[in-house]
Amino acid sequence: MARRAGTRQTRGSILEEATRLFGAQGYTGTTMRDIANAVGLLPGSLYAHIDGKETLLLEIVEGGIDKFLALGYAAVAGPDSAESRLRQLIKGHVAIVAQNAERTLVVFHQWRYLTGENLARVVEKRRQYEAIITTVVEDGFRTGLFNDKLDLKTSVLSLLGALNWTAEWYKKDGPDTGEEIGERIADAILLGVRGR
User: Fold this and answer.
1) SS3 breakdown of the chain: % helix, strand, coil, rounded to 5?
2) Burial of 90 (0-12, 13-18, 19+ CB in 10 A)
3) Given 50, 65, 86, which residue is the final one in a domain?
4) pLDDT digits over 14-37, tens only?
5) Pairwise CA distance, residues 120 & 125, whole Å
6) Residue 36: other Cβ atoms inside 10 A
7) In the chain, % of residues over pLDDT 90
8) Do residues 88 and 119 both lie within one domain?
9) Tens digit of each residue's pLDDT (9 = 90 or more) over 120-159
10) What does the alpha-carbon distance between residue 179 and residue 84 come to, in Å, rounded to a whole number?
11) Is 194 helix (H, G, I), strand (E, B) or coil?
């Protein structure tokens, strides 16, 4: 049992250091030797814990997207108005970013280095998240809460762009909490899409 716990701890350290290195040096600029050195292992010893560098990237990216999907599925299934659900999505998205902006940047930028089935899985999950937000915004248009003169696709992509950009400028030690920033972004976006 102690060996299994030690393996999980080592794997957690490997993921943490890989995230940091992918964020600082990029996926292609990070070697297995870099990751091994960061966790204090011989490069060959890494393979006792992982299959390879792409496996690490997939786990980081997919784990991050899964957090956004869980938030999205909870919001889209809720009984509240489209405006309340969109506010919940916006605030939740920013809260996930604020938990670990460094990881979020890897999730948002480094996924392109995945290949084959790994890439297809991640692209599908990204599409699912966009579809969730589209459903909520579309519901707001349909019920008259949001201005139906706005283009749906442009509105959704603009919203995602604004939310995803938060990871670029959010500072954990800044004067504002993730919750405060999420509330302000929700106010700004919702004021922009409200119908008359």
Assistant:
1) 80, 0, 20
2) buried
3) 50
4) 999 999 999 999 999 999 999 999
5) 9
6) 18
7) 67
8) yes
9) 999 999 999 999 999 999 999 998 888 888 899 999 999 9
10) 16
11) strand
Domain extent for 27: 1-50
For 47, list phi and psi in degrees, rounded to 5: -70, -10
Closest CA to 129 of 111, 156, 151: 156
Query: Is the same domain home to 116 and 152?
Result: yes
Q: In this structure, what CATH number is given to the domain that contains residue 34?
A: 1.10.10.60
Same domain? For 83 and 4 the reply is no
Residue 46: burial class (beta carbons within 10 Å; 0-12, 13-18, 19+): buried
Phi first, then psi: give them for residue 81, nearest 5 degrees: -65, 160
At 130, phi and psi to the nearest 5? -60, -40
The pTM assigned to this predicted structure is: 0.87
Specify the amino acid at residue 137: V
> Do 46 and 60 sit in the same domain of this protein?
no
Please tell me whether residues 23 and 103 are part of one structural domain.
no
* C-alpha gyration radius of the chain: 19
